[in-house]
Design goal:
The chain has one domain: Cell Division Protein Zipa, Chain: A, CATH 3.30.1400. The protein is 33% helix and 25% strand. It contains three helices and eight strands. The strands form two sheets. The chain has a six-stranded antiparallel sheet. A two-stranded antiparallel sheet has the order 2-5. Strand 3 and strand 4 form a beta hairpin. It starts with a strand and ends in a 6-residue tail after the last helix.
Length: 140
Protein backbone atom coordinates (compact mmCIF):
# COMPACT_ATOMS: atom_id res chain seq x y z
CA UNK A 1 0.00 0.00 0.00
CA UNK A 2 1.46 3.34 -1.01
CA UNK A 3 0.62 6.96 -1.69
CA UNK A 4 1.20 7.29 -5.44
CA UNK A 5 2.22 10.25 -7.57
CA UNK A 6 2.31 10.02 -11.38
CA UNK A 7 4.83 12.32 -13.07
CA UNK A 8 4.31 13.17 -16.73
CA UNK A 9 4.80 16.07 -19.08
CA UNK A 10 1.35 17.60 -18.62
CA UNK A 11 -0.04 20.76 -20.20
CA UNK A 12 1.01 23.87 -18.32
CA UNK A 13 -2.27 25.55 -19.24
CA UNK A 14 -4.37 22.93 -17.43
CA UNK A 15 -5.67 24.21 -14.11
CA UNK A 16 -7.28 20.88 -13.20
CA UNK A 17 -7.16 17.40 -14.67
CA UNK A 18 -10.56 18.12 -16.24
CA UNK A 19 -8.73 20.59 -18.51
CA UNK A 20 -6.66 17.78 -20.07
CA UNK A 21 -8.29 16.52 -23.29
CA UNK A 22 -9.20 12.82 -23.33
CA UNK A 23 -6.95 12.29 -26.36
CA UNK A 24 -3.97 14.11 -24.84
CA UNK A 25 -0.65 12.32 -25.33
CA UNK A 26 2.09 13.63 -23.00
CA UNK A 27 5.48 14.35 -24.48
CA UNK A 28 8.28 12.01 -23.45
CA UNK A 29 10.40 13.19 -20.53
CA UNK A 30 13.46 12.00 -22.44
CA UNK A 31 15.94 9.14 -22.22
CA UNK A 32 15.43 7.28 -18.96
CA UNK A 33 19.09 7.64 -17.96
CA UNK A 34 18.86 11.43 -18.42
CA UNK A 35 15.69 11.57 -16.29
CA UNK A 36 17.45 9.53 -13.61
CA UNK A 37 20.46 11.87 -13.73
CA UNK A 38 18.12 14.83 -13.22
CA UNK A 39 16.40 13.10 -10.30
CA UNK A 40 19.81 12.46 -8.72
CA UNK A 41 20.65 16.18 -8.96
CA UNK A 42 17.79 16.82 -6.53
CA UNK A 43 17.89 13.60 -4.50
CA UNK A 44 21.40 12.12 -4.75
CA UNK A 45 20.72 9.22 -2.40
CA UNK A 46 18.17 7.44 -4.62
CA UNK A 47 19.51 3.97 -5.42
CA UNK A 48 19.11 3.40 -9.16
CA UNK A 49 21.22 0.23 -9.35
CA UNK A 50 18.15 -1.02 -11.26
CA UNK A 51 17.32 1.84 -13.67
CA UNK A 52 13.72 0.66 -13.96
CA UNK A 53 13.07 0.85 -10.20
CA UNK A 54 14.84 3.36 -7.96
CA UNK A 55 14.65 3.28 -4.17
CA UNK A 56 14.99 6.09 -1.65
CA UNK A 57 15.09 5.23 2.04
CA UNK A 58 14.87 8.01 4.59
CA UNK A 59 14.33 7.83 8.33
CA UNK A 60 10.62 8.71 8.12
CA UNK A 61 9.63 7.53 4.65
CA UNK A 62 10.61 5.64 1.55
CA UNK A 63 9.91 6.38 -2.11
CA UNK A 64 10.08 3.87 -4.92
CA UNK A 65 10.69 5.35 -8.39
CA UNK A 66 8.93 3.17 -10.94
CA UNK A 67 10.72 4.28 -14.12
CA UNK A 68 9.60 1.42 -16.36
CA UNK A 69 11.72 -0.63 -18.71
CA UNK A 70 11.70 1.57 -21.80
CA UNK A 71 14.79 3.56 -22.78
CA UNK A 72 12.62 6.62 -23.46
CA UNK A 73 10.79 7.68 -20.32
CA UNK A 74 7.23 8.87 -20.95
CA UNK A 75 6.57 9.29 -17.24
CA UNK A 76 7.15 7.58 -13.94
CA UNK A 77 5.39 6.77 -10.69
CA UNK A 78 6.43 7.50 -7.14
CA UNK A 79 5.25 5.00 -4.52
CA UNK A 80 5.55 6.66 -1.11
CA UNK A 81 5.36 4.90 2.25
CA UNK A 82 5.83 6.06 5.82
CA UNK A 83 5.41 9.62 7.10
CA UNK A 84 7.53 12.72 7.46
CA UNK A 85 7.94 15.41 4.80
CA UNK A 86 7.83 13.26 1.69
CA UNK A 87 5.44 15.77 0.08
CA UNK A 88 7.99 18.56 0.48
CA UNK A 89 10.71 16.48 -1.16
CA UNK A 90 8.40 15.55 -4.04
CA UNK A 91 7.52 19.23 -4.50
CA UNK A 92 11.22 20.08 -4.71
CA UNK A 93 11.77 17.26 -7.23
CA UNK A 94 8.88 18.39 -9.44
CA UNK A 95 10.10 21.99 -9.40
CA UNK A 96 13.66 20.99 -10.26
CA UNK A 97 12.47 18.68 -13.07
CA UNK A 98 10.06 21.30 -14.38
CA UNK A 99 7.24 18.75 -14.40
CA UNK A 100 3.83 18.30 -12.86
CA UNK A 101 2.53 15.36 -10.91
CA UNK A 102 -0.87 13.80 -10.42
CA UNK A 103 -1.81 12.79 -6.88
CA UNK A 104 -3.49 9.42 -7.41
CA UNK A 105 -5.18 9.71 -3.99
CA UNK A 106 -7.05 12.91 -4.84
CA UNK A 107 -7.11 12.62 -8.63
CA UNK A 108 -5.80 16.17 -8.95
CA UNK A 109 -2.53 17.90 -9.70
CA UNK A 110 0.13 17.68 -7.02
CA UNK A 111 0.16 20.94 -5.07
CA UNK A 112 2.33 21.28 -1.98
CA UNK A 113 -0.29 22.21 0.62
CA UNK A 114 -2.92 19.86 -0.76
CA UNK A 115 -0.31 17.09 -1.11
CA UNK A 116 0.65 17.30 2.57
CA UNK A 117 -3.04 16.89 3.47
CA UNK A 118 -3.45 14.07 0.94
CA UNK A 119 -0.41 12.25 2.34
CA UNK A 120 -1.80 12.67 5.87
CA UNK A 121 -5.19 11.31 4.73
CA UNK A 122 -3.44 8.35 3.11
CA UNK A 123 -1.51 7.67 6.36
CA UNK A 124 -4.76 7.68 8.36
CA UNK A 125 -6.31 5.25 5.89
CA UNK A 126 -3.21 3.04 6.00
CA UNK A 127 -3.22 3.01 9.80
CA UNK A 128 -6.91 2.05 9.85
CA UNK A 129 -6.37 -0.76 7.34
CA UNK A 130 -3.29 -2.06 9.17
CA UNK A 131 -5.12 -1.90 12.50
CA UNK A 132 -8.12 -3.76 11.06
CA UNK A 133 -5.87 -6.32 9.40
CA UNK A 134 -3.96 -7.05 12.58
CA UNK A 135 -7.23 -7.58 14.49
CA UNK A 136 -7.75 -10.82 12.62
CA UNK A 137 -9.69 -9.76 9.52
CA UNK A 138 -8.43 -11.62 6.48
CA UNK A 139 -9.77 -9.39 3.71
CA UNK A 140 -6.43 -7.71 2.86
Amino acid sequence: MSWDISIQHLPESAVSIDDIPNDFQPLALGPRLNVIANILKTIPDVDFSDPSWGMLRREDFSIEFNMGGEEICNGFMLHVRGGGDAAGLIDQLLNNLGQRGLDCQTGDFFKTDAAAASFSDWQQYRDKVVSTSSSGDDYL
